[in-house]
Amino acid sequence: MMIKRFEDLEIWQEARELCDLVFKVTSKEPFCNDFRFRDQMRASAGSTMDNIAEGFERDGNKELFQFLSVSNGSCGEVKSQSYRAFNWKYIDEKDFKELINRTEKLSGKTTSLMHHLKTSPNKGSKYA
Length: 128
Known about the structure:
128 residues; mainly alpha
């Protein structure tokens, strides 16, 4: 199936939801008062969704693959930062588990799309 807009990609939609969740949990005290860590986690979440969009808007599957790899790395950052936030008692167990579940799910789907792009005979357009 041909995807025409990055907004139609399920992984972008899920990355957007992750970004919203990160904003929500980092807006609560005491997290919101740790400006550097708050901003770092928000930037990682934003990078996760933005790199999917940027890669999609580029020319062809090879560049999309590269940006999906960067997005996946940023998703890993959010996962690691979630552990730190939980250890420092910035987030509760419920938010921690939701962040971990979302990052693992998104990473798995991104990796699957990367595998598909790598093995697809279609190289000029975005197929998913």
